[in-house]
From TrEMBL:
GO biological process: carbohydrate metabolic process; purine ribonucleoside salvage
Family statement drawn from the similarity comment of this UniProt entry: Belongs to the phosphohexose mutase family.
UniProt GO MF annotations: magnesium ion binding; phosphoglucomutase activity; phosphopentomutase activity
Pfam family, one: PGM_PMM_II
Transmembrane feature ranges: none
Assigned keywords, A-Z: Isomerase, Magnesium, Metal-binding, Phosphoprotein
Cofactor(s) named in the record: Mg(2+)
Residues covered by the Alpha-D-phosphohexomutase alpha/beta/alpha domain: 41-181, 211-318, 322-441
Name under which the protein is recorded: Phosphoglucomutase, alpha-D-glucose phosphate-specific
Enzyme Commission numbers on file: 5.4.2.2
Amino acid sequence: MQVGNKAGTLPANSALVNIQRLIAQYYEQEPDPSDPLQQVVFGTSGHRGCSLVGSYTLKHIAAIAQAIADLRASWGATGPLFIGIDTHALSEPALYTTLEVLCANQVDVVAAYDFAYTPTPVISREIVRHNFGRNTDLADGIIITPSHNPPTDGGFKYNPPLGGPASPFFTEPIAKRANEILQDGCRAVKRLSWRATQECPYLHFKDMLTPFVQELAQVINLPAIKASGLKIAVNPQGGASLRYWDRINELYGIGVTIINRDIDPNFSFIPYDYDNHQRMDCMSPYTMKPLLAVKDDYDLCIANDPDADRHGVVTKEGLLPSNHYLTSIMHYLCHHRANWPQGCGVGKTIGASMMMDKVIADAGFSVYETPIGFKWFSEGLFKQQLCFGCEESAGASYLDFSGKPFTTDKDGFLAGLAGAELCAISGLDLVSYYQRLTTKYGNPSYGRIDEPTTAQGKQAFVHLTAQSVQAQKLAGQQIVQVFTTAPGNHAPIGGIKVLADGCWFSARPSGTENIYKIYYESFLGPEHLELVRQEAVDIVTRALSAQ
């Protein structure tokens, strides 16, 4: 991965986004429905785009909102629709458009008082609380966020009645209907004026902050964290979690220090990432420089992205690799939650460490491995068939102390606080805890790279099969399995995974760039890991060229 010359530095004022232009283009750009780049496309986490290039405009949002209004009743969602936004510049304009359309369609929509910023896990919690144990008038939700994407971007996520990110079962008909609406010039959109929307009886307001924070005690041992005296720093990274961390600290007295209280749609306090773009990636050492700068003053540092569905954790030794941290809290929780249902599964994505498989099996649970995306865990968490779910890109959630669902979307609060509870109860720091696990289960080396390809090359991944891999060995180790569907739910992974004795790799194309991603791991040391990387690229190249 080539690192840009600006990585880790703050943007100059002259380089910041022109917010006025960004918002003006949201209202004025006319998308071309015949251009695939300007159509509604639901990726891993909803529709994302930018008003400056005509992929995120008022018409896109109106069409998506109308599609949801048309379809939600067919999924049993005839109850309230909970809606939240993050701090990106395009989120608030998109919120107004969405409310105008939903209210015109007589959907009972619930927003936070004063349209306050609302984290993704809070919307998930509202849906779960309303729907758990209920069969009729189910709630659903919308979070208007592009997650950790750059300041220029907008995003729109739909959460169905299970409370988590929507699977293709929901997103494919939404996108199909929205694009039909766009193609017809949005004539099917019902929409009130903003004044009429504010006075509409279908618009409701709620304090979502207080119940979420109060109910955290049902899922995290906050008294133990307080008693431990841990010094904890939190960087909301200019996101929706700020007020929530303040209330958590106020209610539970766990000694949190907020190191950045700024809310700025330019995200001027976020350093450039590896590719000279600003993004609020909690797992980037460049983006996380503000927390790394204070690591020696705290026992544990936690960061969230703008909608607080992701987490990043820094210790005195530095930024923890996501796989290390997730494996540690997975192990801790599996051994400290006596009321979790017996025989249920623990979810992980195909890009996550095989170390997790060993931890899960040793704790007496079953491994539930899925394609990339937290959406594959929502149903299992809601139905208590999974007790924990995580994806390698720093997203996790889990059941409460009683074994009931709390959130079924990625939850940056639960994921970050689990580490604090682990330290408080075990008496170990996070690095020492993981080292104990490696003594028992082995010490894997892990990597991820992006390889350039073409649009045609990305499409070729669809046609890969187990027979596409002709090699018998990977870095000298016997290949034991090649698969193109996930072992847990048998859903297509969008690429291939090659499993060998003591090592593996998986490869899949990016949804937005002409690259494909290779995740790879070896239990035989860093030098062997490099061999795995080299041979993974060769195996994928040969498989694609044979199509």
